[in-house]
């Protein structure tokens, strides 16, 4: 399962965008298989989240409960 969420926050003075979340059974284990150099999974009210990127640099997020 995957989802997208709109991202807009005037405080950062950045254009609107989208964030993609891909669900996995274990965000930490899945993220460890990527080439992410600053991989920092964190616990949130929505489960465990981790921001990573594909080999071309396109960012996405991993989520698990």
Structure description:
This protein has 65 residues and is mainly β. Helix content is 9%, strand content 45%. The chain is built from one helix and five strands. A five-stranded mixed beta sheet has the order 1-2-5-4-3. It starts with a strand and ends with a strand. The model has no long low-confidence stretch (mean pLDDT 79).
Short key terms for the protein model shown above:
5 strands; 65 residues; mainly beta; single chain
Short précis:
The chain is mainly beta. Helix content is 9%, strand content 45%.
Task: Give the topology, please.
Layout lengths: L1 E6 L9 E7 L3 H6 L9 E3 L2 E7 L5 E6 L1
Parallel strand pairs: 2-5
Antiparallel strand pairs: 1-2, 3-4, 4-5
Question: What string gives the helices and strands in order?
Answer: EEHEEE
Q: Largest sheet at a glance?
A: 5 strands, mixed
Class by alpha and beta content: mainly beta
* Oligomeric state of this protein: single chain
Proportion of strand residues: 35-45%
Helix content: under 10%
Instruction: Give the averaged pLDDT, no decimals.
Output: 79
Radius of gyration: 12 Å
